[in-house]
Amino acid sequence: MEDIPVNKKALISAFELFKSFNNTKVLKGLTIDFNTGDRIALIGQNGAGKTTLIRCILGQYVFEGNLSVMNKNPRTEHEELMQHIGFIPQIPPPLKMTVGEMLEFFSKLSNTDKQEFIEIGVNLGLDIDGNISKPFLKLSGGMKQKLLVALALGRKPEILLMDEPSANLDPEARKIFFNYLSNYDKDALMIISSHRVKELENLANRVVEMDLGEVVLDKKF
Amino acid sequence: MSKGFLYMTELDLMQNFRSRWFWAYSLLFGGFVAIMFLSGITESQIIGFVGLSRLMVTFMQVSMAILPIYVLITTVRSVVGDRESNVMEYMLSLPISFSSYFWSKFVSKFIVIYVPVLFALIVAVIWGSLKELDIPWNLFFYYSVLLAALIFNFLGIGMFISVIAKSQEIAISSAFILWLILVAFLDLLLMGLMLKMRLNPDVVIWGGMINPLQVFRTGSLVLFDPKLTVMGPASYYVLDVIGRKAFLILSIVYPFFLGGLFAYLGNRYFKRNDII
Q1: Which among A10, A62, B186, B200 would be 20 to 30 A from B56, CA to CA?
Q2: Domain coordinates in residue numbering, chain B
Q3: How many domains does chain A have?
Q4: Where residue B101 falls among pLDDT bands split at 50, 70, 90?
Q5: Is residue B239 within 8 Å of residue B228, measured between CB atoms?
Q6: Is residue A56 part of a domain?
Q7: Do A61 and B94 touch (CB under 8 A)?
Q8: Cβ contact A161–B93 (<8 Å)
Q9: B4 and A87: CB-CB below 8 Å?
């Protein structure tokens, strides 16, 4: 990675990042740094490229240009890098594993005590004991999202990527969720893709707006 | 071996062992052995073979009919299905390498498909011993490995299709077409081709021999029918060119090689392209 013109001080650094699908450019030479302590509200219309950017950071897309995450290449150093990243997807995946298996699996994979996840889940209003042997896909939308939030936050990652994380949460759980994020490690980087900009007002310290694959606004406050 | 691979394999196995299809599939093979015993197949005779050997040969013929299409259909949906349902987006945001994800799917599928088949063969041996039948150990061991080779082969091909297919529909259609081609190019059709097109018999026979289904069929026959009399003129070429012992080895090595090659190519494609 010696020749890559990225900012090594940034947690995530993109330099002229391009991504195309069937000759349609979805990211058009994105150059941006995300730093320690940034709490970014990533906004933009559908098709602006927000999810594509998140997936590039997660190493799930092949891209052109340069992208460094914690000074690592998300494609070739994926497994190592994902130890430091927590991700909350927009649509909960239809996982067949039970809640108990999920807790066990995440605990072993990330060397985290199960209690860390359980504590956050319970605080969000999730009845873990009552659902422990239920397959994840049979939980309600809200319960799924609460568990995904608990699993992402419980690992205490340095980078949190969230794609419409509160879409399925009830108002009470949403309040607790944002409260958690507000009190989360101040040095962590959070990128929250959302349409509910108002919700992020008290949390975000930087707004990045994307449109048609480009950054059209980058404002810190 | 990475932690991600071990935990993913363990998770996949647990999910598979819990699923209804696994038990239905196990019952199918277990039930088949039971039906064969109850229907008195061990007392009937084929080319001088009777008892447990007769049962095992029939078991292999049934396996050849069921396993390839079963393995293909259940496997081709695995990667592309996870991709379409967003399972992969989530699972690969965890500390699991792309290769670990791919190979864990492969290994767990192999175990859940092979174990019931092997178990059915073991049940047949136990049942046979209780009925005081002679146990054909050479057939048992050879068929156990041959079945593993067949499953491994179609698993590798299935995983490859699953990785490159754009949708589950395409994956399943491709699997069906492939299976139909392989079935169509079994020896009966080969003989017809050879006669009609007046092709060089060597070319036709070797064309058939790259068909893993044909290799499995011939392999399962050659142990109890050393002259391959049931295969007609094709046997002349096969046995003359390669010999019986070499063919026994080939029928195990070739499917493993072919399945391994396709699995390797599938993993390589998976690592080098968009995951979702």
Answers
A1: B186
A2: 3-272
A3: 1
A4: very high
A5: yes
A6: yes
A7: no
A8: yes
A9: no
Cβ neighbour number for residue A135 with a 10 Å cutoff = 17
Beta-carbon separation of B95 and A97 below 8 A = no
- Residue A6 is assigned to a structural domain of this protein: yes
Q: Which domain holds residue A208?
A: 1-84+197-221
Which residue has 């909960």 as its token pair?
A92
Q: For residue A190, which of A42, A25, A30 has the smallest C-alpha distance?
A: A42
- Mean pLDDT for the stretch of residues A38-49: 93
pTM, two decimals, is 0.92
Note the pLDDT tens digit of each residue in B145-193.
Answer: 999 999 999 999 999 999 999 999 999 999 999 999 888 877 656 666 7
C-alpha neighbours within 13 Å on the C-beta side of residue B32: 21
Search chain A and give the residue with CA nearest B83: A93
A4 CA to chain B: closest CA distance, Å? 20
C-alpha radius of gyration, chain B, whole number:
20
List, for residues A141-199, the tens digit of each pLDDT value: 999 999 999 999 999 999 999 998 888 888 888 888 999 899 999 999 999 998 778 88
State pLDDT tens for residues A15-36. 999 999 998 999 999 999 999 9
**Contact criterion met (CB below 8 Å) for B57 and B46:** yes
Is this prediction's ipTM beyond 0.90? Answer: yes
Residue B44 has pLDDT above 80, yes or no: no
* Mean model confidence pLDDT for chain B: 88
A109-136 pLDDT, tens per residue? 999 999 999 999 999 999 999 999 999 9
C-alpha to C-alpha distance for A52 and A57, rounded to whole angstroms: 9
Tell me, what's the pLDDT at A1?
42
Chain centre distance of CA B132: 31
Check if the beta carbon of residue B269 is closer than 8 Å to that of residue B105. no
Residue A124 maps to a domain: no
Which residue, chain included where needed, has tokens 């130890």? A83
Distance from the Cα of B29 to chain A's closest Cα (Å) equals 25
- Please give the single-letter amino acid code of residue B214: Q
**What are the residues of chain B with a beta carbon less than 8 Å away from any beta carbon of chain A?**
2-4, 7, 11, 14-15, 19, 85-87, 89-98, 100, 272-276
| A120 located within any domain | no
Contacts of B276 in chain A (CB under 8 A): 55, 60-61
By the CB < 8 Å criterion, does A59 face chain B?
yes
The domain spanning residue A6 has which CATH number? 3.40.50.300
Are the beta carbons of B92 and A108 separated by less than 8 Å?
no
